[in-house]
Every structure is written in C-alpha cells, then in structure tokens.
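Hi team,

As requested, here is the filled-out complex form for the zinc ion run. I kept the field names the same as last time so the parser does not choke. Let me know if anything looks off before we queue the next batch.

— J.
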Amino acid sequence: MNKEMHQGKDEKFIPMTSISSGSLRKIMDDVYYFTDQIANVILVGKSKDDWVLIDTGLPEREDAIRNAIHERFGQDAKPKAILLTHGHFDHVGGLVELLEDWKVPVYAHELEFPYLTGEQSYPEPDVTVEGGLLAKISSIYPNAPINVEPYLKPLPADHTVPELSGWEWLHTPGHSPGHVTFYRQDDGLLIAGDAFITVKQDSFYKVLTQKTELNGPPRYLTTDWSAAKQSVEQLADLHPKMAVTGHGTAMKGDGFAEKLHQFVKEFDQVAVPDYGIYAPDQEH
Ligand SMILES: [Zn+2]
Ligand SMILES: [Zn+2]
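And here is what came back:
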C-alpha cells in the first residue's frame, strides 16, 4: 500500500464562491463554522488546546482555514484531531497539507477508507443529473482519492466521538458509503456534512447568494438515493434543534425539527432527481 500522503491526483480549480465566503460564524459557544468559497469547515471546542476540526474544505484552501483558526483560537492553534463527515474533494481539500504540519489523527467511517488511502476513486460526478449549472460543470470536480493513511483512524464502534465528549456519530450513508453525521443531544445540534444541506447546491445563483433552504445531498455526487432518504429520516427522528451542513448557512431556531420532518415527507419530490445516472426508477 502506498504510504506516501497525497491529495487527489486530479485536483482542479473550482471557479465558484459565495457571498458569505470567508466569514467565521458562531452557532453555539463552542461551535463555529467558516464558509470558504462554497464549503463549510467546522471548529468545535472552547479553548486553543482543546478543539477539533470537522472537514477541511476545498483543495488548496488551507491558508483560508488557517486564517479562520487564527481568528478563533489565535496563532499556532492546532486541533487535537480532524473528523471527516466523508471524503469528497470539497471536504478533504486542505487535509494533506494540514496534516503534514499538525500530525494529528484523522477519524472517518471505515467505509470511506478506500477514498482516503488512495485505493479507490469515487464514482464520476453525474453531469446528466437533473439540476442546474453546477451539476452540468460537475465533471470538473475531482473524484480521485487522497491518501492520508498514516494518520487515518476509524471512528469508534461505540459511536463516541474522539476528543468530543457529549457527542455521538451516526452513519448516514447515501451521499457516500461512509458518510457520517455528528450529533450532540444536549442542545440538539447536528453537524450533518452532505446528508442534507441548506443551500440548493446545483443552482449557481443560490450557491452565490447562499439562500437558506433545506435540500437533499448534492445530486451530482449522490449515488444511493434510498439510503440518502433513510439517513435524513434517521436525523429528523432525533428532533434536532439546529444544524450546520457541508454547504449553506447553519439553521437554528423554533421549528427546525418540524422543517426537517416536512422535508423528509417531500424528499422524493424535492431531493431525488427525476433523471440522472444514479436516479431511481429510470424506466418510467
Ligand atoms: Zn459530498
Ligand atoms: Zn460537499
């Protein structure tokens, strides 16, 4: 097995951004997130020496992540660990570079390991899927695996989250095989990756303005829609009070659980594409 770390070998420039790009925002006292271009990076913890980073954004954006960390925890702060919701290019972008510097463990679900150890590429993005411009140009998105094997560790089987007490991880596959969501029951906070998102990721305009609305996982990369639906059902059943997702603005407040339940009811109509390589029931 190749022990040398590397980013995906098909890294490409991502020509998009959003109006909120670059701002560090607070959800709870110990949870901040930073939207870099189109992807969210989450910082969980209260002090410089005791925090974790969840996901690492788009390729070649590690300096932007460092700036956000600097703003939150001061110069030279490094996390105790990095947690991954999944291994897509827009969630592991700065990972190799940051690890070379920090040398901290990276935790992910074992089903994502092939994509994080250089063994296997994700399926090609589906440029034919029903959706807007971002789906049409999704062939420019990298899908080759990165390799972070020296630092990679499986999330614990008992569903506890390393370095984060009071949190649990839930397997929420569909968008990718080993996709996970982090949940804190005390305040009902979900860190949901791309299990669902709060912006219409295949609309260029809505990504640009970050109009907040519940949406299914980004279509061009989602390969198992029935698992994706079950995952959102599982999350809605927790009656969460707020969520920060991989893309879009965090949602919080009265009625969030209700909105998520409603979204589950409409999932087949609003989230699942009518056509595309991975769309179900293509016969009719
Ligand atoms: Zn993804
Ligand atoms: Zn994503």
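Two things worth flagging: The first helix runs from residue 62 to 73. The chain has a mean pLDDT of 88.

Thanks,
J.
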